[in-house]
Amino acid sequence: MKPNRQYQIYRHKFTSPLLTAHGNWGARESIVLREESNEGRISFGELCPTPGFITSSIKELLPLVEAWKGGADFQINPLMQSAISCMASEIWDTSFKVEPKSSVYSAELITFSKGVGNISTTYKKKIGIEVIEIEIKEVKQILNSIPKESMIRLDANESLSIDELLKWNEAFAHETRIQFIEQPFPREKIEELLAIEKELSVPLALDESLVWKNDFSFFEKRGWQGFYVIKPCLFPHWGKMIAFIRSQPIRSVISTVFESPFGYEAVVRCAFLSNQVAGLDRSLFKLNAKEIPQHHQRPLFSENLPISVLDKLWGEL
């Protein structure tokens, strides 16, 4: 017998638009897959088009999803590969282990509408949007307003020039609370990124370049010393990705692309394999009928969300 395959289109507006160097993003639109094997194993995968990373329309993806529903297994589209690979991965197995830690904390995303709270250990701010002098001043103000033991991650989304990155480094060279500057250069400028990393006092993190290259070993072999911001729903090989997170738990930062609750649960399970504070802030979603209360806990606890909870929500969409 063939496995039971289903899909649903998922749409959810953010509570406020997310402004990044890639532009304004106001809602999540994705396709969620559900598969139940002949043995009763239920798993989910999600196709998550994401501005600035992998852009595809739902209309373009639907024929691939229909083919999968009809029994096709191989797809060359990276979003389809990721969703299928997610469903096949160990994270949906009852034996999946969430060690080495018992809870996951998330960095708090600083947005215009929300401002800065005072309960997080790690904050994330988008940069490369306004004049650099203004943004540096804003970050200094944030550092003065948050607890002294807290950290800030600065996410440039490929928007900085070499001179601008050097200005950020000069401004915060002696500030140990800047955990890293994320993806300062355009994704294809990997050589420039590798070269300048050794000259900076402020650590760097890969994001768009990592998705674009889709090869952790490439950066390891080239001597990358910084962090890896890993967005699981944008990687086509979940087995390889999970193995890398396990091998580099201190340098792996698991991050959301604002998935549906089904994809988000899969990402959370990956986050338990890292020793870093994750990037899983879900405050852009209201806690309503499309949301699961456990996903809004602080911190996220180690017990995997029962599949029955996800299946109940599936039936209500």
Describe the structure.
The chain is of the alpha/beta class and 317 residues long. The protein has two domains: 4-92, 2-Layer Sandwich (Enolase-like, domain 1); 103-305, TIM Barrel (Alpha-Beta Barrel), CATH 3.20.20.120. The chain contains ten helices and twelve strands. It has helices at residues 58-69, 78-88, 132-145, 162-172, 190-197, 208-213, 216-221, 238-247, 261-271, 307-316; strands at 4-20, 23-36, 42-47, 103-104, 108-110, 122-126, 151-155, 178-182, 204-206, 227-230, 252-254, 300-301. The strands form three sheets. It has a seven-stranded parallel β-sheet. The two termini are 27 Å apart.
The rounded distance between the terminal residues' Cα atoms is 27 Å
- Cα-atom radius of gyration: 19 Å
Provide the CATH architecture of the largest domain: Alpha-Beta Barrel
Extract low-pLDDT stretches: none
The domain count comes to 2
Biggest sheet: strand arrangement: 5-6-7-8-9-10-11
CATH topology of the largest domain: TIM Barrel
**CATH superfamily of the largest domain, please?**
Enolase-like C-terminal domain
Query: Using DSSP, what is the number of strands?
Result: 12
Helicity range = 25-40%
Beta-strand percent range: 15-25%
Give the rounded overall mean pLDDT: 92
- The assembly state of the depicted protein chains is single chain
CATH secondary-structure class of the largest domain: Alpha Beta
The shape is globular
Largest sheet: 7 strands, parallel
Structural class of the secondary structure composition? alpha/beta
Number of helices: 10
Order of helices and strands: EEEHHEEEHEHEHEHHEHEHEH
